[in-house]
Specification:
Layout lengths: L7 H23 L3 H6 L3 H21 L5 H6 L6
Helix pairs in contact: 1-3
């Protein structure tokens, strides 16, 4: 997830993490919960969305230290 051509999973992870960051910012500055508003306030669906966003954030943190397997195959990641 760090450089080179990103796979579909890497792109989804980045988008979900971005949505999570945007949601936190909107919540802090304007009291607006983007996820709940977009999903219509359905508790189960919102929990699933928050779970996916949390996992994507974790994967982004891991990607700081370890390269995505798709990047290693394409030679897009430098090994440390």
């Amino acid at each position: 997830m760090t450089g080179g051509k990103a796979c579909v999973i890497c792109k989804i992870v980045k988008v979900l993490a971005g949505v999570g960051a945007l949601n936190w910012g909107l919540s802090a500055f304007f009291g607006l919960n983007l996820v709940e508003r977009a999903l219509g306030g359905h508790a189960t669906i919102s929990k699933a969305a928050y779970g996916l966003i949390g996992v994507s954030g974790l994967l982004l943190l891991v990607s700081l230290c370890k390269c995505c397997p798709c990047q290693k195959k394409e030679g897009g990641c430098s090994t440390k």
